[in-house]
Amino acid sequence: MRHLLSAGDLSRDEATLVLDTAAELAQVGDRSVKKLPTLRGRTVVNLFYEDSTRTRTSFELAAKRLSADVINFSAKGSSVSKGESLKDTALTLQAMGADAVVIRHSASGAAHRLANWVDGSVLNAGDGTHEHPTQALLDAYTMRDRLGRLDGLRVAVVGDILHSRVARSNVLLLTTLGAHVTLVAPPTLLPVSVHTWPCEVSYDLDEVLPKSDVVMMLRVQAERMRDSFFPSVREYSRNYGLDGERLNRMPAEAIVMHPGPMVRGMEISAEVADSPRCTVTEQVANGVSLRMAVLYLLLGGS
C-alpha cells in the first residue's frame, strides 16, 4: 500500500493490520516519553484547504510522536489564496522532498489527483463529500476496542448521509470488516447512488435503534447545503435526534459515536453527548494512535 485514498481500497487483512498496529502504538501514549524514533528524518506535510481542528491536530501529533518533521500548510495564508493550483502546490511539495502529504480538500477526488503528482505517500484526510478513510479506521478501532469485535456488529449511521464523507468511508470499511451497516436519514439527505452502497437504508430511527450495537450520529452539514433539506431544526431533532429516551431503547451494551463537531441539541442531546456510552473523546484519542499506524505502515517505519 503506497497511499490511503479510499477506505474501499483496503482488504480485510490490510484494514486489520492497521487496527492491530494502532493497538500496539496506543501503548506509547501511556508512557512518560511519548515518542518513538521510527520516522526520524522523514517529512510529513499537512495540506489543509478546509478548516479542521481534530483531524489536522491529530495527524500532526501522530507524525511528531513518530519523530517525523511536520510542515503545516494551511491554504488560507498561502499562495493558494493568490490562485496557485493544487498541481503547482504539489510540485512545490515534491521539490521539498515530502515523504507523505496529508490532504483535506473541498473537491471530491483531490487526493486521487495529488497522488499522480507526488512521489510520496498521499493520505486522504477528507475530500469533498467523497471519503475520509482514517476517520472510518479510527471509528472501527473504537468499536472493536469497546465491543471486542467488528464481525457481525450492527451499526446504524444516522443523519446527513448526503454530505458525509465519513458515512461513505464507514460503510465501505465496516462492510469489509464484516459488520452490517444501516443508514438512517430523511430521503432528502441520502445520495442518489445510495442503492449501490453495500448497506441497508431506513427512514425510521426508532425502528432501527433496538437492533443496533453502534449508533453513529452525523452532524447536519449546513455549510455544504444550498437548499432546504428538512422543514426545521426542531422537526429534524424530533425525527432523527438522539436523546436520553431514545438512548434507553438501544441495547444495554450499545454505544453512541459521533465524528465531531457535535451540534448539541440538534442531532444529539447534551445528556447523550455526556453519557459514558458516548465514545466521542475516545474516538479523538484513538485517532492519534490510528494515524500513527497509517503513517508507520505507509512510510515503512522500522
Automatic annotation (TrEMBL):
<feature type="domain" description="Aspartate/ornithine carbamoyltransferase Asp/Orn-binding">
    <location>
        <begin position="151"/>
        <end position="298"/>
    </location>
</feature>
<feature type="binding site">
    <location>
        <position position="165"/>
    </location>
    <ligand>
        <name>L-aspartate</name>
    </ligand>
</feature>
<comment type="pathway">
    <text>Pyrimidine metabolism; UMP biosynthesis via de novo pathway; (S)-dihydroorotate from bicarbonate: step 2/3.</text>
</comment>
<feature type="binding site">
    <location>
        <position position="261"/>
    </location>
    <ligand>
        <name>carbamoyl phosphate</name>
    </ligand>
</feature>
<feature type="binding site">
    <location>
        <position position="132"/>
    </location>
    <ligand>
        <name>carbamoyl phosphate</name>
    </ligand>
</feature>
<keyword id="KW-0665">Pyrimidine biosynthesis</keyword>
<feature type="binding site">
    <location>
        <position position="82"/>
    </location>
    <ligand>
        <name>L-aspartate</name>
    </ligand>
</feature>
<dbReference type="InterPro" id="IPR002082">
    <property type="entry name" value="Asp_carbamoyltransf"/>
</dbReference>
<dbReference type="Pfam" id="PF00185">
    <property type="entry name" value="OTCace"/>
</dbReference>
<dbReference type="GO" id="GO:0004070">
    <property type="term" value="F:aspartate carbamoyltransferase activity"/>
</dbReference>
<feature type="binding site">
    <location>
        <position position="260"/>
    </location>
    <ligand>
        <name>carbamoyl phosphate</name>
    </ligand>
</feature>
<dbReference type="InterPro" id="IPR006131">
    <property type="entry name" value="Asp_carbamoyltransf_Asp/Orn-bd"/>
</dbReference>
<comment type="subunit">
    <text>Heterododecamer (2C3:3R2) of six catalytic PyrB chains organized as two trimers (C3), and six regulatory PyrI chains organized as three dimers (R2).</text>
</comment>
<feature type="binding site">
    <location>
        <position position="104"/>
    </location>
    <ligand>
        <name>carbamoyl phosphate</name>
    </ligand>
</feature>
<feature type="binding site">
    <location>
        <position position="54"/>
    </location>
    <ligand>
        <name>carbamoyl phosphate</name>
    </ligand>
</feature>
<dbReference type="InterPro" id="IPR036901">
    <property type="entry name" value="Asp/Orn_carbamoylTrfase_sf"/>
</dbReference>
<dbReference type="InterPro" id="IPR006130">
    <property type="entry name" value="Asp/Orn_carbamoylTrfase"/>
</dbReference>
<feature type="binding site">
    <location>
        <position position="135"/>
    </location>
    <ligand>
        <name>carbamoyl phosphate</name>
    </ligand>
</feature>
<dbReference type="Pfam" id="PF02729">
    <property type="entry name" value="OTCace_N"/>
</dbReference>
<comment type="function">
    <text>Catalyzes the condensation of carbamoyl phosphate and aspartate to form carbamoyl aspartate and inorganic phosphate, the committed step in the de novo pyrimidine nucleotide biosynthesis pathway.</text>
</comment>
<feature type="binding site">
    <location>
        <position position="55"/>
    </location>
    <ligand>
        <name>carbamoyl phosphate</name>
    </ligand>
</feature>
<comment type="similarity">
    <text>Belongs to the aspartate/ornithine carbamoyltransferase superfamily. ATCase family.</text>
</comment>
<dbReference type="InterPro" id="IPR006132">
    <property type="entry name" value="Asp/Orn_carbamoyltranf_P-bd"/>
</dbReference>
<feature type="binding site">
    <location>
        <position position="219"/>
    </location>
    <ligand>
        <name>L-aspartate</name>
    </ligand>
</feature>
<keyword id="KW-0808">Transferase</keyword>
<protein>
    <recommendedName>
        <fullName>Aspartate carbamoyltransferase</fullName>
        <ecNumber>2.1.3.2</ecNumber>
    </recommendedName>
</protein>
<feature type="domain" description="Aspartate/ornithine carbamoyltransferase carbamoyl-P binding">
    <location>
        <begin position="2"/>
        <end position="144"/>
    </location>
</feature>
